[in-house]
């Protein structure tokens, strides 16, 4: 979309002076080779506040020509620049500096995140932004711990391995946790000595651009991190296809993940994909429902259900099925939906009109398939904004579309099961395998189910967001490659084996 006309004054509440400053004064341009530049085409696109439908800013719409420039800058920075050759202690200091700057600007970043994405400010301020800073600090610690090995060769030879940076890394991220996704990608790539081209989602470019300013302010060499805002088929696919990008890391939908993989074949880029899910939450009759119920509610409705690991298929054992549904519905209706800047709000709007329509359509599909909608649907009397109430379908069959397809909205399906065998069978009956949860007081059963479920992450008797210390990634069509923890280092390095005649 180009030249969409004048920007309406966004509704900015409270003390948002610096967020307002950023919106009105900072150029929403591309960061290429250390300079902020407009798209070569001159095109821009709108980013919208999903709670009010107001345009927040016009943002440069980068495409192939801009990606070419960014790749040149990243290549130059990798081959000739200081970053890859810098000692690990110094590199660690830069990453710590970025973490400090994120924390100093936490209020502004959280305000921008909530304006652009619609998530409650109480969550962006206490979860997204602090975790982004924590991610930079965590990977700062790894800079000095990227080891090779010495191998037991015969005595006439000395063999060792070097773990080296891959080169120019393209990183394409979604809109559900915009700054945190940027941190999960950029921090480990930098820790390993790579250079980066980051493409944020078109719906949420603002905090990535602010991060670009902070990274520049921290003094990283020009071209080390380049940021190309733009659209998937233009900027995104140009990065995925580019013959001089060495590695691509993608988080988003399974359909686009497949396109990324195809686009990578030209130069055999290294690829890691973190894709969709339809994750099960298995609740046995002996579970502590006082804990299981509120956590099942959070597990599916957090971030308005726009979470790749959302536990959208809730399996409840037959003996407790009806009482579980009652308690779950009561607790769901207490998820206050509304103005994301109101401290009482637990759920904001969906990200966009398109996502709103997609979710509302799935609600209709669920009704037509014969599932029982106990609560939810469109918010009655809602004005502006893409709000959908927490929606619960009971008496769902695991073969229904609402139990098979990723909705990415606040729609829970509650499915009965007979016994442990049946629970595992149904839980695994999906093309996805990102996460699973199990609730039981029987510790043996908990670990049996953890082993039997085909998922990259399993939670036992708890719920919470991913911790940067532990790997995250998918089985089956939820993708491959593991991010976070030490495992991100494997994604952003390659091994060299060196033999020396003694
Ligand atoms: P998406 O299309 O997969 O978007 C993710 C990222 O990929 C965005 O930066 C997007 O750019 C970019 N992209 C889109 N098409 C591309 C292409 N052909 N080549 C390269 N990059 C491309 O996801 P979405 O449309 O935002 O959401 C659709 C569905 O994806 C959701 O309903 C949900 O099921 C799933 N999803 C999953 C996650 C997750 O964390 N696993 C996150 C978000 C969404 P644009 O922003 O310009 O499209
Ligand atoms: Mg937006």
Largest sheet, in brief, is: 7 strands, mixed
C-alpha geometry: globular
Which radius of gyration do the C-alpha atoms yield? Answer: 23 Å
The CATH architecture of the largest domain: 3-Layer(aba) Sandwich
The CATH superfamily of the largest domain bears the name: Aldehyde Dehydrogenase, Chain A, domain 1
CATH topology of the largest domain: Aldehyde Dehydrogenase, Chain A, domain 1
Strand content: 15-25%
Q: Please give the order of strands in the largest beta sheet.
A: 14-15-16-13-12-17-18
Q: Give the integer mean of the pLDDT values.
A: 95
Give a list of the ligands: NADP nicotinamide-adenine-dinucleotide phosphate, magnesium ion
Annotation field: number of helices: 16
Distance between the termini: 64 Å
Estimate nothing, just give the exact number of structural domains.
2
Walk me through the structure:
It is globular and about 70 Å long. The chain has a 7-stranded mixed sheet with strand order 14-15-16-13-12-17-18, sandwiched between helices. The protein has a 6-stranded mixed sheet with strand order 9-8-7-10-11-19, sandwiched between helices. The protein has helices at 17-25, 64-79, 88-104, 106-117, 121-142, 178-191, 206-217, 232-241, 254-263, 289-301, 321-332, 353-368, 401-404, 420-428, 443-452, 487-491, and strands at residues 30-32, 35-37, 44-49, 54-60, 150-151, 157-165, 168-172, 195-199, 225-227, 247-251, 270-274, 280-283, 313-317, 372-378, 388-394, 411-417, 435-439, 457-460, 479-480, 493-501. Strand 3 and strand 4 (54-60) form a beta hairpin. It has 2 domains: 19-275 and 478-499, Aldehyde Dehydrogenase, Chain A, domain 1 (3-Layer(aba) Sandwich), CATH 3.40.605.10; 280-468, 3-Layer(aba) Sandwich (Aldehyde Dehydrogenase, Chain A, domain 2). By secondary structure, the protein is α/β, with parallel strands linked by helices. Helices cover 38% and strands 21% of the residues. Mean pLDDT is 95; it is low at 1-14. The structure holds NADP nicotinamide-adenine-dinucleotide phosphate and magnesium ion.
């Amino acid at each position: 979309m180009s030249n969409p006309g004048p920007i309406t004054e966004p509704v900015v509440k409270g003390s948002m002076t610096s967020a307002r400053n950023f919106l009105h004064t900072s150029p929403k341009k591309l960061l290429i080779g250390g300079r902020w530049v407009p798209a070569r085409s001159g095109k821009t696109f709108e980013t919208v506040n999903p709670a009010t439908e107001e345009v927040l800013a016009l943002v440069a719409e980068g495409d192939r020509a801009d990606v070419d420039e960014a790749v040149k800058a990243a290549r130059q920075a990798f081959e000739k620049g200081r970053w890859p050759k810098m000692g690990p202690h110094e590199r660690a200091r830069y990453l710590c500096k970025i973490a400090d700057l994120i924390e100093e600007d936490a209020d502004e970043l959280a305000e921008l995140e909530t304006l652009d994405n619609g998530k409650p400010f109480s969550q962006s301020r206490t979860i997204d932004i602090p975790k982004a800073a924590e991610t930079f600090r965590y990977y700062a610690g790894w800079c000095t711990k990227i080891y090779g090995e010495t191998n037991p060769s015969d005595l006439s030879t000395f063999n060792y391995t070097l773990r080296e940076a891959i080169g120019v890394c393209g990183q394409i991220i979604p809109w559900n946790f915009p700054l945190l996704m940027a941190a999960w990608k950029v921090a480990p790539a930098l820790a390993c000595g790579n250079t980066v081209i980051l493409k944020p989602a078109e719906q949420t470019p603002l905090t990535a651009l602010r991060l670009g300013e902070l990274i520049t302010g921290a003094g990283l060499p020009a071209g080390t991190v380049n940021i190309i805002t733009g659209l998937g088929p233009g900027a995104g696919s140009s990065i995925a296809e580019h013959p001089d990008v060495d590695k691509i890391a993608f988080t988003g939908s399974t359909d686009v993940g497949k396109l990324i993989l195809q686009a990578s074949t030209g130069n055999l880029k290294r690829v890691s994909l973190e894709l969709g899910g339809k994750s099960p939450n298995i609740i046995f009759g002996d579970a502590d429902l006082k804990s299981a119920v509120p956590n099942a509610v959070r597990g599916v409705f957090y971030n308005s259900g726009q979470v790749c690991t959302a536990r959208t298929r809730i399996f409840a054992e037959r003996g407790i099925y009806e009482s579980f549904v009652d308690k779950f519905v009561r607790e769901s209706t207490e998820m206050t939906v509304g103005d994301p800047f109101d401290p009482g709000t637990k759920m904001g709007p969906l990200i966009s009109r398109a996502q709103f329509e997609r979710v509302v359509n799935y609600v209709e599909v669920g009704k037509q398939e014969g599932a029982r909608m106990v609560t939810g649907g469109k918010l009655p009397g809602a004005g502006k904004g893409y709000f959908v109430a927490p929606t619960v379908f009971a008496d769902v069959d695991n073969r229904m579309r609402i139990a098979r397809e990723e909705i990415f909205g606040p729609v829970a399906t509650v499915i009965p099961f007979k016994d442990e065998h049946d629970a595992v069978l149904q839980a695994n009956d999906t093309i996805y395998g990102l996460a699973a949860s199990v609730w039981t007081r029987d510790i043996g059963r908990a670990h049996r189910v953890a082993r039997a479920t085909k998922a990259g992450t399993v939670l036992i008797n708890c719920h919470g967001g991913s911790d940067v210390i532990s790997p995250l990634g998918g089985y089956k069509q939820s993708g491959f490659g593991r991010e976070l923890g030490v495992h991100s280092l494997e994604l952003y390095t390659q091994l060299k084996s060196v033999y020396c005649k003694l």
